């Protein structure tokens, strides 16, 4: 099938010749027995795992075998994805994963812009003789890839995987498994198509995926209506006991300690989306979540309008991300991180009060 969205999407995404992923097509199809690894950032979300498994299933359609290795585990709400049972958790299978990374011919790096985002795997990927392929939509990617499809103007990495498939002129190879995984990432990274990164072409791509078999209602239920009772109690506790509202600067803040996580039997994925609750409050322009993960204090930032979440995360909390959605971390105590944030935010009052 000839690409039908390529010109429109490339124009909007400002894809340049520097994005040379099309050049890998003959390299892949010329030898379908090559060893291919697909990986994504630690604690993968739906866009990270969806793009990885979507690419995995697309390669299967081309007669190419690949292996998805994640740096860590991920939430149970993602385990419905087709092929999820084939994913290898590096932390649980470090020795065999290390061997596969060293022996790889290609390593596809999806939904992250720096090798530090894949933890211990980062150094292994760096040392591997494999050709590295970056597919990502985060700001300021490190210069580690040989091939890439990168722009900050995409809704999601899943949308970029779709664009790669279009550039390959292989949209006919998208089956229900590919479509379901890619649709999940687009849906979640756009917050069900409400973020500013949702463009007309985003809906058109989603429509193609629906036509290819993705079931939007089932995917939504599997992701958002599939949590444990402990997770629901945890969310209720955070909203009732931990939510701080600073009306003068239109900001919401939730800080959760390690003991509180333990009390509510918090598991991977249980805090997913918690930061978004603050933005649903009338008048709130910035919502921040600080969680004590014992070895690190992790932060999530979400904003409306012209507040630069990525700038605050990058300058003060060793992080980064998108303009209205970013993350950071600190080795300091959660009390000091909270105090630091409250001090820093004063310098941004003019962006929150106008």
How do the SSEs run, as a string of H and E? HHEHEEHEHEEHHHHHEEHHEEHEEHH
CATH topology of the largest domain: inorganic pyrophosphatase (n-terminal core)
Number of strands: 12
Largest sheet, order of strands side by side?
Answer: 3-2-1-4-5-6
Q: Quick one: CATH superfamily of the largest domain?
A: inorganic pyrophosphatase (n-terminal core)
- Give the total of domains: 2
The shape, in one word, is: globular
| Distance between the first and last residues' Cα | 49 Å
What's the architecture of the largest domain, going by CATH?
A: Alpha-Beta Complex
Structural class: alpha/beta
Query: Which percent range describes the beta-strand content?
Result: 15-25%
Low-confidence stretches: none
Q: What is the CATH level 1 assignment of the largest domain?
A: Alpha Beta
Q: Could you report the average pLDDT, rounded to the nearest whole number?
A: 92
H/I helix tally: 15
Helix content: 25-40%
Largest sheet: 6 strands, parallel
Rounded to an integer, what's the Rg over CA atoms?
Answer: 20 Å
What does this structure look like?
It is built from 15 helices and 12 strands. The strands form 2 sheets. Strands 3-2-1-4-5-6 form a 6-stranded parallel beta sheet, sandwiched between helices. Strands 7-8-9-10-12-11 form a 6-stranded mixed beta sheet. Helix 3 (46-61) runs antiparallel to helix 7. The chain has helices spanning 6-13, 25-29, 46-61, 94-103, 121-127, 157-167, 176-189, 200-211, 216-224, 229-242, 258-263, 276-279, 309-316, 334-344, 349-352, and strands spanning 36-40, 67-70, 88-89, 106-110, 131-136, 147-150, 243-246, 251-256, 286-292, 297-303, 320-321, 325-330. It is of the alpha/beta class and 354 residues long. It folds into 2 domains: 6-218, inorganic pyrophosphatase (n-terminal core) (Alpha-Beta Complex), CATH 3.90.1640.10; 229-352, Diaminopimelate Epimerase, Chain A, domain 1 (Roll).
